[in-house]
Design brief:
three-stranded antiparallel beta sheet, 2 domains, Beta-lactamase
Length: about 375
């Protein structure tokens, strides 16, 4: 690892935002005093992230890193791609998609079309005596539905995620996920589940259209996402995958360039569009970034830099960087890690076996410890 040519972009005139696809990653509003301090810091050491970026490509144990971007104070300050990968390529989200689904659900809650604490609008659960009627939107967003979902299993094909995505459940992924029985009382148990997020995607489509036509359902979803998030964020590369029923595969399958992943992280950091217009309400950001009752390192479809989580190892790096750090996280080492306190967003995309991701996480933590 680490040999060969690489593509790099380093900004030296960092007072000017780099144009990305005809637009810029916009800085958040700052006071004149903050602006002067920020400018001085940025000019004094524009390459200070370079060794940390290089470590994600060159250190033993990190697997295959394909792209790393660093955005500081709204400006792209470091960018590197492995041979064969470029700024124009789309990169798969895997479970980073969950955070985008969470943002989209938030718009419908803000519009008054969905209610966090009402029974989730799933007709299949509303039959007389069905205990799943107690599942709320909040439960789904915080992975506390109680549904019998198994994200990872041995053998690998014996898991809900793999059956849903690749075998018996592919034609109607949400139908497969919705059809599972309860294994716990709703709200009482945390269980991470890609199938749960596909249920959220179906709720979005059901709220946007009464049509059963898969093409119309997918089109309604795309129009909504474009109007409320992708257009204001200026992320033209974002590509959604849908199943045969027109349900977006919201737990796993969104594709975008590394720069657009960085933009989406910045939108979640600030709550604002590129032009500074607020698009994610402070209340919804607070909900997404508040620890779930059953797992302090998970919020509303997003990971938090907190200790005491549900797993043997933390997902992020508590103790290295602020507690306010959050991240979109995906299978095989996809990360958009954001620190609102430090005005810092780091994107790492690649292919590292999940059992080996600790090396990647530890190196990502250094960006925020150094900040």
């Amino acid at each position: 690892m680490g040999g060969g040519l690489v593509m790099r972009v380093r900004t030296f005139a960092v007072l000017l935002a780099l144009p990305l696809f005809g637009a810029a990653i916009a800085p958040p509003p700052v006071s004149e005093a903050d602006e002067a301090t920020t400018a001085e810091t940025a000019i004094s050491n524009p390459g200070r992230f370079d060794p940390l970026v290089d470590a994600l490509f060159e250190d033993e144990g990190v697997g295959e890193t394909r792209a790393v971007l660093v955005v500081e104070n709204g400006r792209l300050v470091a960018e590197r791609y492995a041979p064969g990968y470029t700024a124009d390529m789309r990169y798969i989200s895997w479970s980073m998609a969950k955070s985008i689904t969470g943002i989209l659900i938030g718009f419908l809650v803000e519009d008054g079309r969905l209610d966090l604490d009402a029974p989730a609008p799933i007709p299949e659960w509303q039959g007389e005596g069905d205990p799943r009627a107690a599942i709320t939107l909040r439960h789904l967003l915080q992975m506390r539905s109680g549904l019998e979902h198994t994200e990872v299993n041995d053998p690998i094909w014996d898991s809900d995620t793999n059956r849903m995505l690749f075998t018996s459940g592919t034609d109607d992924m949400a139908g497969y996920a919705i059809g599972q029985p309860l294994e716990a009382t709703p709200g009482e148990m945390y269980e991470y589940s890609s199938a749960t997020t596909v249920i959220l995607s179906r709720i979005i489509a059901d709220t946007l259209t009464d049509s059963d036509d898969p093409g119309e359902r997918a089109a309604a979803y795309r129009r909504f996402a474009q109007a409320r998030l992708l257009g204001p964020a200026r992320t033209p590369s974002v590509y959604f995958e849908f199943d045969a029923q027109g349900t977006q595969v919201g737990g796993s399958l969104i594709h975008a360039t590394a720069r657009d992943w960085a933009r989406l992280g910045e939108v979640m950091r600030t709550g604002n569009a590129v032009d500074g217009t607020p698009i994610i309400s402070p209340e919804w950001r607070e909900f997404m970034l508040t620890p779930a009752p059953n797992n302090p390192e998970y919020g509303g479809q997003i990971w938090l830099n907190r200790a005491g989580g549900a797993y043997d190892r933390p997902t992020l790096f508590p103790g290295s960087g602020p507690e306010t750090v959050f991240s979109f996280v995906g299978h095989l080492g996809q990360y958009v890690v954001v620190s609102p306190d430090q005005r810092l967003t780091v994107v790492r995309l690649g292919n590292t076996p999940d059992a080996d991701r600790r090396a990647v996480v530890d190196r990502l933590g250094r960006f925020f410890a150094a900040g």
